[in-house]
Amino acid sequence: MATTADFKNGLCMDFNNDLYTIVEFQHVKPGKGGAFVRTKMKSLTNGKVIEHTFTAGVKINVARVERRPHQFLYLDDMGYNFMHVETFEQVSIPKNLIEKPLLLKEGMNVEIVYHADTETPLSCDLPPFVEMEITYTEPGLRGDTASSSALKAATIETGMEIRVPLFIQVGDRIKIDTRDNSYAERVKK
């Protein structure tokens, strides 16, 4: 058991028969009345974000979650198949538990979040940046832009389309920010 004084970003708790993690919180002590805590929480089972206000001192049930290193193996009709890096155990995860499935590449290392009490996978977290190869893009012509930040469409090796600068060509390896699917930089060969 914990109280609202123990709130911090990333804390997982049982709330309304679901598992939630705190995304954002704010302790408020108005001049009149009792103190309270405003929170923004994300469901670990369905991904919905809700806002809730707790009165100060309320007890909550903290849920134990574990992050375990896995490697992506392949995709089949059962789902996305991963192997634990240390124990070599294999687990299959449905697509809805992976936030950006189009950025997964065979052999990529990820972290799978498990509910420690029930041993069920809750989500799959990709690393902040991934390296991909450009498989198709139109050639960027000099003088095409009015500003220096012009972007064009490009397809990466997993089939996902992203926006890249004009100087990127087919065969180039780029680094992609997985938080917003944006181009980060070209990888030196």
What does this structure look like?
- 16% of the residues are buried.
- 0% of the residues lie in helices and 53% in strands.
- The chain is flat.
- It contains no helices and 16 strands.
- It folds into three domains: 61 residues, Roll (SH3 type barrels); 61 residues, Nucleic acid-binding proteins (OB fold (Dihydrolipoamide Acetyltransferase, E2P), Beta Barrel), CATH 2.40.50.140; 57 residues, Nucleic acid-binding proteins (OB fold (Dihydrolipoamide Acetyltransferase, E2P), Beta Barrel), CATH 2.40.50.140.
- It is mainly β and 189 residues long.
Helix-strand layout with pairing:
Blueprint: E1 2-3, E2 12-15, E3 18-28, E4 36-43, E5 49-55, E6 59-62, E7 65-76, E8 79-84, E9 90-93, E10 109-115, E11 120-125, E12 129-137, E13 151-156, E14 161-165, E15 173-177, E16 182-186
Antiparallel strand pairs: 1-6, 2-3, 2-6, 3-4, 4-5, 7-8, 7-10, 8-9, 10-11, 12-13, 12-15, 13-14, 15-16
Tag the structure with descriptive keywords:
five-stranded antiparallel beta sheet; OB fold (Dihydrolipoamide Acetyltransferase, E2P); 3 domains; 53% strand; 16 strands; six-stranded antiparallel beta sheet; flat
In the CATH scheme, the class of the largest domain would be: Mainly Beta
Give the fraction of residues assigned to helices.
under 10%
| Physical arrangement of strands within the biggest beta sheet | 1-6-2-3-4-5
How many beta-strand elements? 16
The CATH architecture classification of the largest domain is Roll
Number of helical elements: 0
What number of domains?
3
Low-confidence stretches: none
Output mean pLDDT: 89
| CATH fold title of the largest domain | SH3 type barrels
Sheet having the most strands:
6 strands, antiparallel
Helix and strand content put the structural class at mainly beta
Strand share of the residues? over 45%
Oligomerization: single chain
Instruction: Give the N-terminus to C-terminus distance in angstroms.
Output: 52 Å
The gross shape turns out to be flat
**Could you state the order of secondary-structure elements as H and E?**
EEEEEEEEEEEEEEEE
Please compute the radius of gyration using only Cα atoms: 21 Å
